[in-house]
UniProtKB/TrEMBL annotation, chains A, B:
The keyword DNA damage does not apply. Residues 27-36 have a biased composition (Basic and acidic residues). This is glycine--tRNA ligase. Belongs to the class-II aminoacyl-tRNA synthetase family. It is an enzyme of class 6 (ligase). It comes from Arabidopsis suecica (Swedish thale-cress). Residues 228-523 form the Aminoacyl-transfer RNA synthetases class-II family profile domain.
Length: 656, 656
């Protein structure tokens, strides 16, 4: 390979790396290639002739991120030590918004759908991720640039190499076709195969890249045993399936919900809240009979209409998501492969809209066949548009019986459900009768485990050695230790592996998009500056009500205390601002953290309540103030009701 | 050392290890040696002449743990893979109890005390724990037994060795005194000093122990940089102190609360929920002026009386905790060193009692001078008695200004508060005037950081090289780059480092003790078996209300749905049990998970509501049923009120 080509490869690989910073490694996680649009947008960034739209997007994003940082919604962790890329803390307002989002999530899913909420540990023994396929499938092959020490994904480099080779006018049609083939299939290769291809490519050049070596994700070594930090909560729910099934009275379907921190060893985390190394997932594992994927409450959501982007539309050039009726989409099986999957799409839509996500910037996109994770048979993403493009925020996947089957095989515990047969049937069964007087001395108290394992190895004859996972070692069974015979058995139930429908919510991503959708500015009264307003719904707002005594005196202080105490006892998050600054400045400070209601105490007997977005005010008696705000905060009353019941208060000076 | 002594050392070390399994390594964590009583009790365990009391305790514990496991309150994680010691999952009921406990915690502390709740990451860069002293102080020196591969704490082995040596009648009085000295001070030694002592001890014998080597706790190596998993949430709150202080309008005192998962590399985790490798902490960092530790609401708790165990009482033999008045204890400064610390003791007491902890089995024990963590100047533990003895569940420590000072020094960011001086004072100050035309070319855009760092290195003369943490490298400043002069400056504020009062709640431990305190049994009606009842308060109970249609028919089904829907919309966790089993069996199943209210639908117009503990029932109209249960579940109405308002329902057959 000649020098220009080599330098092109480096340049190109850096561009790929850049792109990855913004949208790249979600393939590492359970949902693959989510931000197609963003990925298409971002390489333009480095070009000097950036479009005006692009520039506006970036300016907007910068303004939002700066505000979130300044008001401590979200900020870099351990900043005094210069931070760590990909780690973010929630400050007081951000954490309260997170708790509000999770509280609505619990209400919409756990409570309304009678799910079991559980909490498994983040530390997970290696055996679990060996069985689940994470260790094999999410070990991206990485190569290191020995010049700058940066890591690059081998598949991206191979693609770049092939695309560049194709531009050589001297190569044969055959070679070009071969290169096309590599480009098309590079993402389907195993780490081993990819390593071979990469070694072939890199042998053609004087590369500064080291030879390929796999990079382990999510690894944490503890002294006591090899543990990983979970990249998803789901595996804990799968491992405990049998217990939950029993607790549910051995009935299907049922759902297990889990909210918790997960960890991903992102190579180049950027994009603030969108790609972090530690974040909160809220996941639902809905276990269902493989042949009964209908849903009893599907009719509740069947008539919903919203933006959907089916697979075949994506395959046509120039197509966009279209407003479709969910019921009709499910009816066409190729769009949504089961009612249960469709039901969750509907519920996810309702949840996100309720939070305050703009429904014109929310779409459900069907995964293309080659972008699904290794365990999924179908997947739709709830994508929300923000300044980064369309971002995957919720993945709704049919994980099939992949995980339960994998754990059954590797653990030796059958993670199955049972079903009564319409009529009992006779089956031939091998019966193993252990010779206890032989087994006892040979296995000293562990005979039971050995016999159980043996039953799963019926083909064995004569002396056989096999691994018993419950003992953690190999054992040898000799002929004299058991007697094997055939007998007929009447069977009235059959065991089957349930399938899993999994809606998985990236809470941090949803929050970031919500922040962008709620962010707005308006000119100050004097017109000399732009004031920030987060237009949060009362449900999401970190503080529901601010109370401002207009001036400092004992009567106003007492009135303020009275309202504050009542709101507290109603469970409404409130805050008193007694600083001496002007009421206008106090309103502005309240608006920028998105407080929907502001009470100004300007008399001993009555107060004003201000609506954040219109800045209009009503006058309400001191005694009623807290209950009016409480009703609106709990969405039992709207501003329309309040406008109709209380006199408008006009004060030219109010917003000064 | 002769052979018998050697074998004694091995035996003894195993006994120590055993003891550690039960109560040992909390010294690794922020609170030291908490379970003195338990530690005293447990060595007896291995003795064959166990007392009857001991035996009862163990039987009780076994019954509780078995029940928690069977009902999936708490169970071993990844059990299908034989689990990992020290990792436990919460099943549906356990997780709901945890959420209830955390919800009350937020109400009692975050909301009532206007705290800021934040969420920092669990992944923490090494620099943070270098500064905090965790890396240095919590690196227990471990030695490995090369025979069985087990790790033992070197300080325990040294102590055993010395105690055994003393029994040798031939040793001199001088030697014996020296051994006593080692025994007394072994816990105060640094890892390095201890290593020296251990090497000296072990050189006297043919040991199977390897030479000592430090064992790192909480370590997780990521590719990108060395990170630890946090063993407490506090360090994140400390690192962000300045931001929180600014957000609070630069006023003290204020408190930062954090609930999150923490990780500890326990050597030999046992004791179920009491010593785990991953668990939930709820911590409060209350930042206060070092000279103003009084508390404006102290009078709210001053009159409380409960069991306290001051330091001097513990030092007298045979003393126990005594019922003391909190206000009086605080007045005697040597008992509780500040009103703020005392205030939190009172609030912790009220919180635990409200949860349902038996107040006769709750005491506040003052730490002895030598058992406090390296950062603490005072500490009281809320200890709850359970079958393991008195267990530390909440530590209330005065961490002084240790942490903020340490992070200021190591990070170069002054984590201080400011106070106005009564009158401005003049101070002499060195003024550094940078020569920008020299600095610019030398540091290319980083001049500002360099000058800032230089100001912290005023003594420097001529050419000086120093480390600029914001650049992450050394820089060299030459004489011509700056000019230094002296000038007088008027100063009207001074900077000081706040001190931290920290109540730290081990949520899992509180829950385990609560489970033991609420566990009870009573004979079945037939008297042939003992039925389990968890006597949870409505606040804590995982399910508030069970609904039982007496028989299967459409009318009862509709009535059941009506009540279920109403309870749901009131936010009351309920569950319908439509299994065909007898009503008595359904009551028993409801009692054993601690459901306080059971509604039986035995007519179309009215239902019965059953009180779990007395098994008494009232008859209530169908329409009122949900609201009566809601009022009681929310503690707005008591059973006394209900007994007075509704007719008692007697049914001899009810509990069959």
């Amino acid at each position: 390979m000649d020098a220009p080509e080599q330098s092109f490869l480096r340049e190109k690989s850096l561009a790929v790396e850049d792109q990855e910073l913004a949208v790249g490694t979600l393939e590492d996680s359970h949902a693959a290639k989510p931000e197609t649009d963003a990925a298409i947008q971002l390489p333009n960034k480095s070009k000097p002739d950036k479009s005006a739209v692009e520039k506006d997007r970036e300016d907007f994003r910068e303004a939002v991120v700066k505000t979130l940082d300044r008001l401590l919604f979200v900020h870099k962790s351990f900043d005094i030590y210069r931070g760590v890329a990909g780690l973010y803390d929630f400050g007081p307002h951000g954490r309260t918004v997170e708790l509000n989002v999770l509280s609505l999530w619990r209400k919409c899913f756990v409570d309304e759908e009678d799910m079991m909420e559980v909490a498994c540990t983040a530390l997970t023994p290696e055996a679990v991720f060996n069985a689940s396929g994470h260790v094999k499938n999410f070990t991206d092959l990485m190569v290191k640039d020995e010049v700058d020490g940066a890591f690059h994904r081998a598949d991206h480099l191979v693609k770049s190499y092939c695309e560049n080779r194709k531009k050589d006018p001297t190569i044969s049609a055959e070679n070009a076709a071969e290169l096309d083939k590599v480009i098309a299939h590079v993402e389907d290769l195993s780490a081993e195969e990819l390593g071979g291809v990469w070694n072939h490519c890199s042998s053609h050049e004087e590369s500064t890249f080291s030879s390929s070596s796999p990079l382990q994700l999510d690894v944490s070594n503890f002294l006591w045993s090899k543990c990983y930090l979970r990249p998803e909560t789901a595996q804990g729910s799968f491992c405990n399936f049998k217990d939950y099934y029993n607790l549910n009275g051995r009935k299907l379907p049922f759902a297990v919900a889990q909210v918790g921190r997960v960890f991903r060893n992102e190579i180049s985390p950027r994009q603030g809240l969108l790609r972090t190394r530690e974040f909160t997932l809220a996941e639902i594992e809905h276990f269902v009979h493989p042949e009964h994927k209908s849903h009893s409450k599907f009719s509740d959501v069947a008539k919903l209409e919203f933006l959907m982007f089916p697979r075949e539309e994506q395959e046509k050039p120039g197509q966009f998501a279209k407003r479709l009726c969910l019921g009709e989409a499910v009816a066409k099986v190729r769009h949504v492969n089961s009612e249960t999957l469709g039901y969750f799409i509907g519920r996810v839509y309702l949840f996100l809209i309720r939070l305050g996500i703009d429904k014109e910037r929310l779409r459900f996109r069907h995964h293309l066949a080659n972008e699904m994770a290794h365990y999924a048979t179908d997947c739709w993403d709830a994508e929300i548009e923000c300044s980064y493009g369309w971002i995957e925020c919720v993945g709704i996947a049919d994980r099939s019986d992949y995980d339960l089957r994998a754990h059954s095989e590797k653990s030796g515990h059958a993670l199955v459900a049972q079903e009564k047969l319409a009529e009992p049937i006779e089956v031939e069964k091998l019966a193993i009768t252990p010779e206890m007087k032989e087994l006892g001395p040979a296995f000293k108290g562990n005979q039971k485990n050995v016999v159980e394992a043996l039953e799963a190895n019926l083909e064995s004859k004569g002396e056989v050695e096999f691994y018993v996972c419950t003992l953690g070692k190999n054992v040898t069974i000799k002929k004299n230790m058991v007697s094997i015979s055939k007998k007929m058995d009447k069977v009235s139930t059959w065991d089957f592996t349930p399938v899993v429908i999994e809606p998985s919510f990236g809470i941090g991503r949803i929050m970031y998009c919500l922040f962008e959708h709620c962010y707005s500015t308006r000119p100050s009264k004097a017109g000399d500056e732009q004031l920030i307003v987060f237009r949060f719904s009362p449900l999401v707002a970190p503080i529901k009500c601010k109370i401002f005594p207009l001036v400092k005196n004992q009567q106003f202080e007492e009135a303020t205390k009275f309202i504050s105490k009542e709101l507290k006892s109603n469970g409404i998050k409130q805050d008193v601002d007694i600083t001496g600054t002007s009421i206008g400045k106090r309103y502005a400070r309240s608006d920028e953290i998105g407080v929907p209601f502001a009470i100004t105490v300007d008399s001993e007997t009555s107060v004003t309540i201000r609506e954040r977005d219109s800045k209009d005010q009503v006058r309400v008696s001191l005694k009623e103030a807290a209950s009016v705000v409480t009703s609106m905060a709990e969405e039992k009353m709207t501003w329309q009701d309040v406008w109709a019941s209380f006199p408008l208060h006009s004060s030219a000076a109010a917003d000064e």
